[in-house]
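Late entry, NDP complex.
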Amino acid sequence: MNNVEGKVIVITGASSGLGQETARHLAAMGAAVALGARRGERIEALAEEINGNGGRAIAITTDVTKREQIQNLVDAAVEQFGRVDVVLNNAGIMPLSPLERLNVDEWDQMIDVNLKGVLYGIAAALPHMKEQKSGHIINVSSVAGHLVFHGSAVYSATKFGVRALSEGLRQEVKPYNICTTIISPGAVKTELLEHISEADIKEANQSYVGQVGVTPDAFARLVAFAISQPADVDINEILFRPTA
Ligand code: NDP
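Prediction complete; structure with ligand written out below:
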């Protein structure tokens, strides 16, 4: 037993990058995974791959900015697998830009996905976990949730916010035996930078992450570490960066 085996784990943003790799990693360790993202064909293909390898996975097309859709994802996990042990609120977007360029629609999108999406994930998970008197909510922040760099003002605001709401959650859910973990990754090579609309900012970030970024398995191992702990240990926060 590795303490991951048998757990039921909901992962948002499972169609690429960190979420996709974590789904593969945890399923290979024996977890049942419920995969959510907007690109249904991608998560269906991943679920097929996991089930084909002898694992257990379901895919539910989910937009985390729609509260009823993430509720449906968590409820489907409970219906299919009997309970929900972990919710990994991983879905996120990072269209970086300086404030003065006034990409206000992108500010709205970041707030909707990175902040409200996490809150809706918590809202979907909590009633089940309170009833079970057990559970683990993992929220993905960022190094940008600890500091601000050129073009990151709004993204950082959402990721600082994820840390604040996760700390509040930690304080409140103790009586229900629910663990909470914030994971703040540094540069990891994924699709995250592809959606930056400002050419200069995109190029600078792609150059940096291309040089130093690690692969998503680094994140997947840390999620496994956090959820592998014995029931009396709650890993509250993990911050990692590429050694380079
Ligand atoms: P990717 O762009 O590769 O993956 C992002 C995932 O989020 C995709 O699966 C995407 O799926 C999903 N997503 C985006 N919007 C929505 C939405 N409205 N509803 C549901 N799912 C959505 O990036 P990463 O894997 O790198 O990012 C994962 C998390 O890690 C993010 O929160 C990011 O901020 C954080 N992070 C990443 C770092 C890095 O260097 N890579 C560093 C620090 C933090 P789809 O488009 O199919 O909906």
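The CA atoms of residues 12 and 36 lie 5 Å apart. Will revisit in the morning.
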